[in-house]
């Protein structure tokens, strides 16, 4: 009898009774046992909504891509026109759709099956940047003592991104839907594993990146290595150094590690010769330093890139590593080293000319080059103060490497030499500012010029464009 009830319950679970013909959906029922009887209860059964609905604007027709929904049989695409939602296509079987060229505005997608539709999902991503996998990396090449590691990514212009964990060339786990821009997953690794990131653009083309993470050896063996005659201050230290962050200054080494710390090592000398190196201090950071710090006076100034796609610039004392100040978080990674430009005295104008006439001088301060192409000039004494903001005109600029500063002492001209992701190098003059004449400054001090200060503040808050003076293809 129990077996018969189990079979009956199984078939009733699949039972679907049609609604009246006026309805476009079927009614779903679930069997419920009441005493010795089994009755059917009406239930609402709808699929989930898509997680991401991405739009890429295109003059030939905006392209929509959304994440697939399990159990969805088709999708509805709507457009917001004249303060109301208008149906564009009520039966789309794929997870992408190209709008007519005349369409523009806001869109939403609804997942449906024969029992009903989910709540509509309005677009939550508008993509305009070019398609590129900027980074796919792990916080460590080998798991920690708990067998854990983190895998992170940064992608631009993608419609969707997925990650697959592979063991012995077979897929062991799959993250179908991850953040298409950036993110981190924390995973447990019990054997040598490869992780494959696959990013798709809005035309369905894909690109992949692969990284490997190893487990801890059961019987770890530390090899002695080969100690040469050249300096090896970190020999067998076990420190995971970021090579691009190493700075040597007055027999001291400053460097960052992938674990998010900043270190200083100093030398021990006998009879004027280096005999050993020792750790002086190390400080924790909110992210990682991907480029060499710079030194100004008794301060170490460095940029920090964080895993949330943001960054900032900080300073610490050389002697003891005590943090002095940091800027506010920037909306983009800051991967390049800061460039310090100090105001040099100008010799082009005589004292009499300076007294009566305005002059041009370079914009001094601490220059930071953000990954999205924004250049900010910060006050050397207060990193929270942004003196000016610039962008490069006429080229696609994405600052990963630190620009080189070229100084012509004869003409007092200074120029940044930069490289972009399109294998171009180009030159940009260091921006200048107008210095009022001595007599103008004196008059302002005597009579006040609040309006001039307001206008200057307003000018500084605007992003200015720096023209490219020359460019060459590599």
Briefly say what this structure is:
It contains four helices and 37 strands.
Structure description:
- There is one protein chain.
- The protein is mainly β and 474 residues long.
- The chain has four helices and 37 strands.
- The relative contact order is 0.06.
- The model is unreliable at 1-22 and 449-459 (pLDDT under 50).
Topology:
Elements: H1 2-13, E1 16-17, E2 27-34, E3 37-43, E4 53-56, E5 63-66, E6 74-81, E7 84-92, E8 96-98, E9 107-113, E10 116-117, E11 121-122, E12 125-127, E13 132-138, E14 148-156, E15 160-167, E16 170-175, E17 182-188, E18 193-200, E19 206-213, E20 247-249, E21 252-257, E22 261-270, E23 273-284, E24 294-296, E25 299-305, E26 311-317, E27 323-326, E28 339-341, H2 351-356, E29 359-362, E30 365-369, E31 375-378, E32 386-393, E33 404-408, E34 413-419, E35 424-429, E36 432-435, H3 438-447, H4 450-460, E37 463-473
Parallel strand pairs: 4-12, 32-37
Antiparallel strand pairs: 1-2, 2-3, 4-5, 5-8, 6-7, 6-9, 9-10, 9-11, 13-14, 14-17, 15-16, 15-18, 18-19, 20-21, 21-22, 22-23, 24-25, 25-26, 26-27, 28-30, 29-36, 30-31, 31-32, 33-34, 34-35, 35-37
